[in-house]
């Protein structure tokens, strides 16, 4: 039985080279992670939660830098849909990120300086390989479930495709098996905003002022895709900021402008611009069907993993049609799969917000075979 205190923040140094899809390797990898609950005697109750693009390992405990609650604290915990009274929950910061795992800001052992843009290019599968190495380090050979929303859902699908014998169930929320041209285009706008910031300096900014303005714009552009027109209209409409006298110009005249600027500025306090470049590129590279002759079904043929997919009707970043395509592929592969589209006005971010219907689906799916 593993000693795991609730919300314990850990750092694992994984020795042995990690081979990457791009052909490079990392001789040593550090993975920051948190655990919640206790592993049972036969190590059969472990659930891996995979975070989204700008997420982290602090899924159900306060963020040490911002003090905000864990990003999925309403879903993960004692008696909650992902119940830490009965499961060991693990959430690891992805490879390439900036919350303790190896990434561009990490020190290159060859030079003693941050890797910056010398960090090797990574993929979603590389992130999954690092997570698998972490589970080996923890003595966990098989997961009861892997769960993720958005980029986390991509990791859950990649887990099931790469390590089918290690995953009993995969819960994929508001996600996709590959990016559309529109997804890639939005990411490229963000990357160009970062690289156009004079403070980016080709990624060599760790001893100077970071490219905060560029990163803030990247976050603003991305954040729009996480919302919905209905949600923005309900929350802000065309309402103006309160002013003593009417004035026109380039200040934040509209409430929605002020909201986006706040999102951008607050993001720069907790995230690394180079990590944003690397992780968005990893998401864009994902195409699980590609190495299977373009057949997504072939990637999962013969699997015994159970799947559940959840989409939201107002999500235009990863619309329901993309989840249905995955479901059709899983059906063609003969994999056991369930699917539900939920109604929400909150767009892609709905999976992070109060969603009682989603909570019931999660609890029900994870309870099967418990």
From TrEMBL:
Q: What residues sit in the active site?
A: 150 (nucleophile), 315, 348
The residue ranges crossing the membrane are none
- Annotated EC: 2.3.1.31
Q: Where does substrate bind?
A: 219, 349
Query: Has UniProt tagged this entry with the keyword Cytoplasm?
Result: yes
Enumerate the spans annotated as AB hydrolase-1 domain: 45-353
Q: Where does it mainly reside?
A: cytoplasm
Protein keywords: Acyltransferase, Amino-acid biosynthesis, Cytoplasm, Methionine biosynthesis, Transferase
Family annotation (InterPro entries): AB_hydrolase_1 (IPR000073), AB_hydrolase_fold (IPR029058), HAT_MetX-like (IPR008220)
Instruction: State the source organism's domain of life.
Output: Bacteria
Q: Which GO terms describe its biological process?
A: homoserine metabolic process; methionine biosynthetic process
GO MF term list = homoserine O-acetyltransferase activity
What reaction gets catalysed by this protein? L-homoserine + acetyl-CoA = O-acetyl-L-homoserine + CoA
SUPFAM superfamilies from the UniProt entry: alpha/beta-Hydrolases (SSF53474)
User: Pathway, per UniProt?
Assistant: Amino-acid biosynthesis; L-methionine biosynthesis via de novo pathway; O-acetyl-L-homoserine from L-homoserine: step 1/1
Write out the GO cellular component annotations: cytoplasm
Where is this chain's protein located in or outside the cell?
Cytoplasm
Q: Which HAMAP family match?
A: MetX_acyltransf
Instruction: Name the PANTHER family on file.
Output: HOMOSERINE O-ACETYLTRANSFERASE
> What is the documented function of this protein?
Transfers an acetyl group from acetyl-CoA to L-homoserine, forming acetyl-L-homoserine.
Give the family per the record. Belongs to the AB hydrolase superfamily. MetX family.
Q: What quaternary structure, including any partners, is listed in this protein's UniProt entry?
A: Homodimer.
How is this protein named in the record? Homoserine O-acetyltransferase
């Amino acid at each position: 039985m593993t000693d795991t205190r609730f919300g314990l923040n850990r750092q694992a140094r994984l020795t042995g080279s990690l081979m990457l899809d791009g052909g490079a390797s990392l001789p040593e990898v550090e993975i920051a992670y948190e655990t919640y609950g206790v592993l049972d005697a036969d190590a059969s109750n472990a659930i891996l939660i995979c975070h989204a693009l700008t997420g982290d390992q602090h899924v159900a405990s306060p963020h040490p830098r911002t003090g905000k609650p864990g990003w999925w604290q309403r879903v993960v915990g004692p008696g909650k849909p992902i119940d830490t009274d009965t499961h060991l929950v693990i959430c690891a910061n992805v490879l390439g990120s900036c919350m303790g795992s190896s990434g561009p800001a990490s020190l290159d052992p060859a030079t003693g300086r941050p890797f910056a843009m010398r960090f090797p290019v990574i993929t979603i599968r590389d992130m999954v390989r690092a997570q698998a190495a972490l589970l080996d380090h923890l003595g966990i050979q098989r997961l009861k479930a892997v769960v993720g929303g958005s980029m986390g859902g991509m990791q859950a699908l990649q887990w099931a495709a790469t390590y089918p014998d290690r995953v009993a169930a995969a819960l994929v929320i508001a996600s996709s098996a590959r990016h559309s041209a529109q997804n890639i285009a939005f990411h490229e706008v963000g990357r160009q905003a970062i690289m156009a910031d004079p403070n980016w300096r080709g990624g060599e900014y760790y001893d100077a002022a970071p490219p905060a303005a560029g990163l803030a714009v990247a976050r603003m552009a991305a954040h729009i895709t996480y919302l919905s027109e209905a949600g923005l209209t309900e929350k802000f409409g065309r309402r103006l900021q309160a002013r003593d006298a009417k004035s026109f110009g380039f200040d934040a005249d509209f409430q929605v402008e002020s909201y986006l600027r706040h999102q951008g500025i607050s993001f720069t306090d907790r995230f690394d611009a180079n990590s944003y470049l690397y992780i968005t590129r990893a998401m864009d590279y994902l195409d699980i069907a590609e190495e299977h002759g373009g057949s997504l079904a072939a990637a999962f043929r013969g699997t015994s993993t159970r799947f559940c997919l959840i989409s939201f009707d107002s999500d235009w970043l990863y619309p329901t049609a993309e989840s249905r395509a995955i479901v059709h592929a899983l059906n063609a592969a003969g994999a056991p799969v369930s699917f539900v589209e939920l109604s929400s006005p909150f767009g892609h971010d709905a999976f992070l917000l109060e969603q009682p219907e989603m909570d019931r689906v999660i609890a029900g799916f994870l309870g099967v075979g418990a």
